[in-house]
Design a protein that fits this description.
Elements: H1 8-22, H2 31-40, E1 43-53, E2 56-63, E3 68-76, E4 79-87, H3 96-113, E5 117-118, E6 127-131, E7 134-141, E8 147-154, H4 155-163, H5 179-183, H6 189-219, H7 224-263
Antiparallel strand pairs: 1-2, 2-3, 3-4, 4-8, 5-6, 6-7, 7-8
Helix pairs in contact: 1-3, 6-7
Length: 280
Amino acid sequence: MGDESPDPHDATAAVVAFVRALATPPSPRDVAEAERMLAALGARPTGEVDAYAPDSELRALAGGPDAVDHLSYGTHAGEVTGVGFFLARHGGPRDPLVRCDHDALVAALTAGLGPARPVFDDQPSPVSWDVGELEVEVQLFDRVDSSVMVGVDHRERAARAEASLPRGDRPCHAARAAPWQAGRMPSDPRTRFREQAEGALATFAGTVAYLLYQVARVTEVRTEGDRVLVVVCTVGAIAALAVVLAIVVRGMLRRRRERATVDARTVEPQDGDRADGTRS
């Protein structure tokens, strides 16, 4: 399922086997049990721990199947809430290969776990399967960039982790409460937009200052007619730059809205096509 995988069927089979192993009872309760189970599957902790909420932690893992990426597990109040990862292949918006990876994985899991259950009535992704006390979930993201997220969460522990969050930070359903999911989300879109806007404005201001400096130099040595021509050209150049800046800012605003939807994966349902064939 990664770009270097010689056989996508083998990659899908490896991911399915990994998910089935994670979903095989008994589910590990504490960190020691989880790390023993994961070690048997070829995954080991990296020592990286990111705070998610009081009493919640995200622990990064290395290893596992070649077809997975960003493997980690989450804890809350000393209990393991879930294990999650992304498929190794990533792509641009609506990448057909990433979608094929997603569809192949969903089909293979359906063959092994039974029919998938859509999490949202009006969207085909994410989908989930109940496996005893656990929930397996697969979610496709393909608006701004394409990736496939997979999680195996303990339903009750994940729900308790969600309940511990401030109301405004709670995800829309319990399966998204697992800390491993939030730990891999991109940075706040508002922060990125502010940085991009500041960079564009700084470039615009610097260009205007340079043009005015050149005007000042020219007006010292040229005739009156030349000075008027230079001033008119400079004003025109500044106006053109202002138009370009407006276009850039408009595009940044549009990308901000698109990225905000994707970055808030734990807040809003927004992925893939709707069931009626339109974009959500």
